[in-house]
Amino acid sequence: MKIIQGPLEIAGQMGILNDAFKKEGHQAMGYNYYHTSLGYKDNILPADGNEITRITGDAINHFEIFHYHYALTFFNDFRDLELLAEAGKPAFMHHWGSDVRKGSIAKLFNPYVNTADSPPEEEIHQKMMKISKYIPVGFVQDYEVLPYVSPYYKEVHVIPIAINLEKFEPVYPNPSENTPLIIHAPTQPEFKGTARIEEVIEKLKKEFSFRYQRIEKMSNEKATALYRNADIIIDQIFCGSYGLFSVEAMALGKPVICYVRDDLMCQYNTKPPICTANPDTIYDVLKELLSSGELRRKKGMDGRKFVESYHDNRIVAKQLLPIYERFLTSKRNTKVTTSSS
After folding, report:
1. What predicted TM-score, i.e. pTM, was given to this entire model?
2. Are residues 270 and 150 in contact, defined by beta-carbon separation less than 8 angstroms?
């Protein structure tokens, strides 16, 4: 298959998935117009919005599968979706959270969630109505995002965050470490609960000997090198689900503190070995990890095993490819039937 993704790179996912698609023998390309300090660049081409719209016609002629991200397409008015429908090319939309997270729904399940970065709810609704008019299938990164988009699509699939494990050699915590290093890397401090996290860290400094490092505004490559030294990694304590930072930390063999809602934990066939903590419990959870080097090591080893079985990009790609193939075959059959008529 010939697969194109765009127009926005979220947590390196386009590039990571394209890597797996290529290993499976497919042609895959990604276009990204949004560039951050994280510096994701593997298997994608940087482009601005005008460049992407200019290549859309050629892309429709060449590629067979169009995989969009973050409730965006190559045209601001979603005109390319109509062009794809006319050309009989399957399109899919991948949602990641803040593109569709409605506060009215989120707060029913989670009193801590911060939806300040999400668009107004009516804007989300109007956009989703336009997208789902042409796209029957949505993808979401986890079960937290599922209720925001399920009313709009005929099908919604939970596609786990993908990671290229070849780039993550585990470095498990030394249980004998007397001054463990805690790392927190908030791209969005208000969303992650950084103020509360650091308040608890200051409190625990009076009880334990440890080091703390906050990492910001650094490329993903440089940040990952620093994560290797960590004994404990703290992701977020507000959202209620875990993201790429937690996955990378587990891949490195680190114990992860992150708030995952109890009702979401029950959705996984294998429960993620995350030390779940919200603003009310972060003190006790962090204290327990600081108190036991053996627990830190065990959690790190359990996390690595989980990522190998659930988040490996080869495994994730093999969930997507049959869905692509099913809709591509359906489009081809429809075209043949129409031509025969």
Report:
1. 0.90
2. no
Q: Please report, in tens digits, the pLDDT of each residue of the chain (341 residues total).
A: 999 999 988 888 999 999 999 999 999 999 887 554 444 455 667 666 677 788 888 899 999 999 999 999 999 999 999 999 999 999 999 999 999 999 999 999 999 999 988 999 999 999 999 999 999 999 999 999 999 999 999 999 999 999 999 999 999 999 999 999 999 998 889 999 999 999 999 999 999 999 999 998 888 788 888 999 999 999 999 999 999 999 999 999 999 999 999 999 999 989 999 999 999 999 999 999 999 999 999 999 999 999 999 999 999 999 999 999 999 898 777 765 555 55
Domains of the chain as residue ranges with CATH: 2-162+313-340 (3.40.50.2000), 166-310 (3.40.50.2000)
